[in-house]
Design goal:
single chain, 158 residues, mainly alpha, 3 helices, 69% helix
Length: 158
């Protein structure tokens, strides 16, 4: 290979390498968002046609296909379930009433205890006030006795 061919090949390779970032940075077309438009033939979910297509039928079976023994057993079982449900509802109502009564008793007892505590606190405050007054009177008597020379002083301690 001649020197000019080698220079051309090197220049071409260098140009290709330098052009790669430019090519990579070019914006790629973003595909359009797929619209969720329903097909005109699609039934509305929940409609009768939709239920028919998906096997969701709610029509009762013809009476001729009913088995009277099966219907009787089913009715008996349904009655037993309904009775158990009613008994459970009554038991729950009884429990709720019992809890409500216990809560009311607790609130009444709490109020009674709070009132008793307030009464005791008031009695204690009154006793402390009496003690402070008595101690102040005693200290004044002691000071007066000491000023008088401390003879024949009869000071009663509170």
């Amino acid at each position: 290979m001649s020197r000019s061919h080698s220079a051309v090949l090197v220049a071409f390779a260098l140009g290709a390498v330098l052009a790669l970032p430019v090519v990579a940075q070019q914006a790629k077309p973003v595909p359009a968002a797929v619209q969720g438009t329903p097909v005109a033939d699609s039934p509305v979910p929940g409609s009768e046609e939709w239920q028919r297509q998906y096997g969701e039928t709610t029509r009762p079976a013809p009476e001729s296909r009913d088995n009277s023994t099966e219907v009787a057993v089913t009715d008996k079982l349904n009655a037993e379930v309904a009775a158990r449900n009613e008994a459970a509802a009554r038991a729950e109502a009884d429990i709720i009433a019992s809890n409500d009564a216990a809560y009311e008793n607790w609130q009444a007892e709490t109020a009674r205890i709070a009132a008793e505590n307030a009464r005791i606190a008031a009695e204690n405050a009154a006793a402390e006030d009496r003690y402070r007054r008595d101690m102040a009177s005693y200290e004044q008597s002691v000071v007066a006795c000491e000023r008088a020379g401390g003879r024949n002083c009869r000071v009663n301690k509170p």
